[in-house]
Specification:
The complex is a heterodimer of chains A (424) and B (194). Chain A is of the alpha/beta class and 424 residues long. Chain A is built from 13 helices and nine strands. Chain B starts with 13 loop residues before the first helix and ends in a 7-residue tail after the last helix. The chains are: A alpha/beta (424), B mainly alpha (194). Chain A: This is Glycerol-3-phosphate acyltransferase 4.
Chain lengths: 424, 194
């Protein structure tokens, strides 16, 4: 009797998974949100340990009162206090380092991984947590994995099939349908509950779409609403297979590792794609790395130099149902996906912002900063000038030189000939 | 839906640290989180490159010296209690003293703050700031923005003003004396939130 049941079990899973994941869970989450968490959406994290007063400029602090503008400031042994204090302040709390680890929640959402400061002190909470664990790992996770596997297999199968079609128009039409199907299945397999705002601003063909980056799932979330051409490195293994499958039926821009270093080549391929108005918009994440969704870091200017219309998109995740941030130094992609699939859900909001063009007299960097500020304002994120690359590399000496220049101006910069030398 | 934190279990010697540094348990907890955040490889201690990864410190002209202040007495790792003890220097001075009076001096007293700053100048820890050491600090703070002659003259002026016993070096007492009018508490304190 047992070997009769065995083939039936996977079938049950395959049929049950879309039903449960597409209907039941989103319904539950959407109705539970106002009941369980009546407080607001975004600002739930504990942020600062020190009160940062308005940054007194180096000049103000060292010179003392503003009245002695005329006399030179002599070097004082106390001058070192300013540097000392600001150095130690940044050890205790700095704007950048904390963006590379997951944000903390004010109240616990029953996921152990979000449990930073909270301790089980009563039985009821532990019981609830245990129940939650069973539900998540026993029911939700297997259903999600099944759906994901089904989805990816179907996707690979159909894209290959469509790739064989001779008729280009039919091919692009069908490939769009196949891609959307694939993305929608992935979205359901993660139980991503997405609210799209301002859909009238959805990116049009022949443009570039730009968004803040928190996780690789960003791609799936955006691409399930309309088709984009993706840009990125060609990987090996499963991801590489998926990438090759995708490119058979629609124009994605995958680079070889060796080509990535050549910026002109990259720029050329992007502008060629954009110039063709029949092609889908390109999706780019100018930060270049995953940030923890509390801030937006420096946008790399490459995509803003091409000179076409930019459609900014802001993505904000609700951390209460599951933290979407991928900390690549802490875990690999597969582990990350599994932990996403064993969270409650991924709830996020996507805002499509009106298209922006580079203005007269604005260079690429200024344009990039303008777009970044718009995205930060919409998503309720902090707008930072720092480079996301600081996750892996150190600050370069240009910043140190700036401070040295400032201090030297305070000490000696008031003399005529000296100040001439200071200007570069 | 949440439960309050029970901090003591995570931090070793929490009560002792609180007594010796004057930090509250909430502060200690936040500092412990920060310590763990800086300790990217989860080793339980910090090494110089963990500090160098902090952007604000890397661009500070005397960043290297501040890092050295954490790694005193030749060790190359900092555990959590040493970390907290050094940061305790930067607590604002307590306005209200305990009724019993403190047995030992807290790290954030005026003298201790001054001693910390003195160490930033006195690299070889011989208790005096020599002319050469002063020049080195000035070079760090000013970089290539001033000429060597300007550096020399600034150092000369500073030594002449502060050096009272004319031994061409500044001892800790002379250092203290030259700063007696300066509001150390404001300049060398960080506003830790409740």
């Amino acid at each position: 009797p047992s070997c009769h049941c065995l083939p039936q079990l996977p079938c049950v899973y395959v049929i049950a998974s879309p039903l449960v994941l597409c209907w039941v869970v989103p319904l539950a989450v959407r109705s539970l949100v106002p009941v369980l968490f009546p407080c607001g959406f975004c600002h739930l994290f504990l942020d600062c340990i020190i009160a940062k007063e308005s940054p007194a400029s180096l000049r103000q602090e060292i010179r003392g009162s503003a009245s002695c503008l005329c006399s030179d400031h002599e070097f004082d042994m106390a001058d070192i206090f300013y540097f000392c204090r600001s150095g130690v302040e940044s050890i205790v709390d700095d704007e950048v380092t904390k963006r590379f680890s997951a944000q903390e929640l004010e109240s616990w959402n029953l996921l152990t991984r979000s449990n930073y400061n909270f301790h089980h002190i009563n039985m009821r909470l532990t019981l609830l947590w245990g129940l939650g664990l069973l539900t998540r790992y026993g029911i939700l996770l297997p259903l999600r994995v099944t759906l994901a596997v089904t989805g990816i297999s179907l996707f690979l199968f159909f894209t290959t099939l469509v790739g064989f079609l001779p008729n280009a128009a039919l091919r692009s039409y069908l490939s769009e349908k196949v891609h959307m199907m694939g993305y929608r299945m992935c979205v359901s397999s993660l139980t991503a509950i997405i609210t799209y705002h301002n859909r009238e601003n959805k990116p049009k063909n022949g443009a570039i779409c730009v968004a803040n980056h928190t996780t690789p799932i960003d791609v799936i979330i955006l691409a399930s609403d309309r088709c984009y051409s993706l840009v990125g490195q060609m990987h090996r293994g499963l991801l590489g297979m998926i990438q090759s499958g995708m490119v058979k039926s629609s124009p994605h821009i995958w680079f070889d590792r060796s080509e990535v270093k050549d910026r002109h080549l990259v720029a050329k391929r992007l502008s060629d794609h954009v110039a063709d108005k029949t092609k889908q918009p390109i999706l780019i994440f100018p930060e270049g790395t995953c940030i923890n969704n509390t801030s937006v870091m420096m946008f790399k200017k490459g995509s803003f130099e091409i000179g076409c219309t930019i459609y900014p998109v802001a993505i904000k995740y609700d951390p209460r149902f599951g933290d979407a941030f991928w900390n690549s130094s802490k875990c690999g992609l597969v582990w990350y996906l599994l932990s996403m699939m064993s969270s409650w859900a991924i709830v996020c909001s996507v805002w499509y912002l009106p298209p922006m063009d580079r203005e007269e007299g604005e260079d690429a960097v200024q344009f990039a900063n303008r777009v970044k500020a718009t995205i930060a304002a919409q998503g309720g994120l902090v707008d930072l000038i720092w480079d996301g690359g600081l996750k892996r590399s150190k600050v370069n000496d240009a910043f140190k030189e700036e401070l040295q220049k400032l201090y030297s101006k305070v000490l000696v910069g008031d003399h005529e000939d000296e100040s001439e030398r200071m200007e570069i | 839906m949440g439960s309050s934190s029970s901090s003591r279990n995570k931090i070793p010697n929490a009560q002792e640290l609180m007594d010796q540094t004057g930090f509250s348990s909430a502060h200690l907890l936040r500092l412990y989180d920060r310590f763990e955040c800086l300790d990217r490889d989860n080793r339980g201690y910090l090494s110089p490159d963990d500090f160098e990864a902090v952007g604000g410190l890397a661009m500070n002209p005397i960043g290297g010296r501040i890092i050295d202040a954490f790694f005193s007495s030749g060790q190359d790792t900092v555990d959590f209690s040493s970390f907290v003890r050094i940061l305790a220097h930067f607590r604002p001075t307590d306005r209200n003293r305990n009724k019993e009076g403190t047995q030992q001096e807290l790290p954030n007293s005026r003298t201790r703050k001054l001693k910390f700053a003195f160490q930033l100048y006195d690299l070889d820890r011989d208790g005096k700031i020599s002319r050469e050491e002063l020049l080195q600090v000035l070079r760090a703070m000013l970089g290539l923005q001033v000429t060597e002659e300007q550096l020399q003259s600034i150092a000369e002026r500073a030594i002449q003003e502060a050096d009272l016993d004319k031994d061409d070096a500044i001892s800790f007492d002379e250092f203290k004396k030259s700063l007696e009018k300066v509001d150390i508490d404001t300049k060398m304190s960080i506003g830790f939130l409740k």
